[in-house]
C-alpha cells in the first residue's frame, strides 16, 4: 500500500505589507521542528522575499486582493509557492531572469537571493488569473519528512 503524503499547508493573506510577517510566522509554525536547523532560516528568507514581491508587484493598489502561499514536502525538497493576481506575461516573464543591481541600488536583490537559496525556482502562470513563483529547498541528504 502506498504511503499517504502530507497535505500541503495553504494560507491566504491580504496583499498588504503586514502580511509578510504573518507569512514568515506561518512557515515557521508549519515546518517540522527537526527541519528548522537544516532549512528553517533559508525558508524564512525565501518566504519574506516571495511574499514581499507578490505584495509589491503582483497586486493592484487599492484593491482587496489576496496573496496565496502553499508549503509542501515532495521529492526530497520543501516547496514554497507564492501566488498573486498579477499578470503572468510581460514583466512577470522577466522575473525569471535574475539581474544584478548596481552597488548603490536600494532594491532589486530579492531574486538574486532566491536564486542563491533555492535548488530550483520558476514563475508559472495560474490557470485563470495571476502567477505563482515556486521555489524548492533541498532536504538534507534528499530525505523525506
TrEMBL record:
**Keyword Nucleus in record:** no
Describe the location of the Histidine kinase/HSP90-like ATPase domain by residue ranges.
13-125
Q: Which domain of life is it from?
A: Bacteria
Question: What molecular function terms (GO) are annotated for this protein?
Answer: ATP binding
Q: Which UniProt keywords apply?
A: ATP-binding, Kinase, Nucleotide-binding, Serine/threonine-protein kinase, Transferase
CDD domains tied to this protein: HATPase_RsbW-like (cd16936)
Q: Which Pfam families match?
A: HATPase_c_2
Name the record gives this protein: ATP-binding protein
What organism is recorded for this protein? Answer: Streptomyces physcomitrii
